[in-house]
Design a protein that fits this description.
The structure is a homodimer.
Chain A lengths: L28 H10 E6 L4 E3 L7 E7 L2 E6 L5 E7 L4 E2 L1 H6 L6 E4 L3 E7 H9 L2 H27 L3 H15 L9 E3 L4 H8 L3 H13 L3 E4 L2 E4 L2 H9 L2
Helix pairs in contact in A: 5-8, 6-7
Chain B binds a DNA duplex through helix 7.
Chain lengths: 240, 240
Amino acid sequence: MISPYGMEIVESCLTCKFRADRVFCDLPQSALQTFEEIKYTTAYPEGAVLFVEHQAPRGIFLICRGSVKLSVSAPNGKTMIVKIAEAGEVLGLSATVSGRSYEVTAETIDPCQINFVKREDFLRFLKNDVNVCFKVAEHLSEKYHNVCNEIRCLGLSHSAAEKLAKLLLEWSSKSGESNKAEPRVKLRLTHEEIAQMIGTSRETVTRLLADLKKHQILNSRGSTLVIRNQAALREMANNN
Amino acid sequence: MISPYGMEIVESCLTCKFRADRVFCDLPQSALQTFEEIKYTTAYPEGAVLFVEHQAPRGIFLICRGSVKLSVSAPNGKTMIVKIAEAGEVLGLSATVSGRSYEVTAETIDPCQINFVKREDFLRFLKNDVNVCFKVAEHLSEKYHNVCNEIRCLGLSHSAAEKLAKLLLEWSSKSGESNKAEPRVKLRLTHEEIAQMIGTSRETVTRLLADLKKHQILNSRGSTLVIRNQAALREMANNN
DNA sequence: TTCCCGATGTGATTCAAATCACAAGACCAT
DNA sequence: ATGGTCTTGTGATTTGAATCACATCGGGAA
């Protein structure tokens, strides 16, 4: 089956190829069966808004395919990108569990396939099975852990260069390239968006990247960055 | 019973006066009974370190009395205070559940009474009772929610004045004073520590507070601040 | 192709806040 | 009371990065 946005649909969680290595898809058969029954699968085009911060939680969104940009914004219009979520990740989980409003805005940045589960259904699902509930608690803990690191980054790294270096290293390790001699990072965001991720201005990002290229630490191949001197990047990320 | 550090000991969670209004103490009788059996109650003096970031999780710490400073620090020695936890709060929960290392360092800032539960005991406790497990998931969600707000604060508010204003308002609302005409906030931290909470320098905090006093927005009575113009503070916190 | 608009690159200028460098209080212990 | 140590107050200086202001590039639509 092919969706209107030109990608293959994953029919069932039971046979999804991400099952093995994704946090939330990794449930016992029986639970997964129940999950199948309460989920709604939808395909979204690029730029679709799944939910908006401060909305009351409608339920959870499980990304099967594609990536989603999570952002927060201030009354004055400034926005900050919190993270780019990939296939296998669950969005809106904490809001759905606690009943508090969504804390971020979620917008697809490419065509996505997403499973949605209504809040009531999901809560019933949790309360029916300790294993599922524990899994969710575990997952929430990991998310908490990650956000704490985020804070550490934002609060402790005072220079923009440091934050950019950290971001690039994170991206290269996520794509499993960091153990190569010259890891490559595909840039999926504009300089403006990168700036919003590290809390700086667009011009600063442009200048920093130019500097890194000048010093032969980076090199660009179209929209792909080649990290030519990982050690130097690490240096920048840790010190200062 | 009186502890070595001069405070009354809360003998049992079943009779603790915080039970009604605290998140985690609010468990059904049966669960609380089990909790009683696996917990170790300890009294700590001011300045005791409960756990250090990056340590493997030994278990959870439930504050019965006193306050605990949670901080993260960078390799270069800079540290940032994440929050001041009060009676009723649980520390080390996410690390204990997920098995990842503690994400912060916890240090008492006054004499404390704390219940400790070993990781294995706690996990068993969780897995034995869906209600407890769900409660924990709920709690983790709230914590996640709060950290997200933290990020929003750090990342979107660029001026130090704004962050300080936000912090003062938060403190006044926590102490339930914010609905009064002139809320009072007891300063429990030094300027240095306040600076670490909002990611700025000690001198900046001193100067900002002096400014606020000059403009009659604040007023100090010893170590207590009186917020004389809450509207102005709110103004500072939201805009800019 | 040509036009157009969004993304980049780069200088010049401005500004908030870090840093440095002391002075003056505040508080504790002897 | 006296000395010592930690906290607070304040000036002077420096600086990283925001902001402003354009020039240029590049890719999609007509």
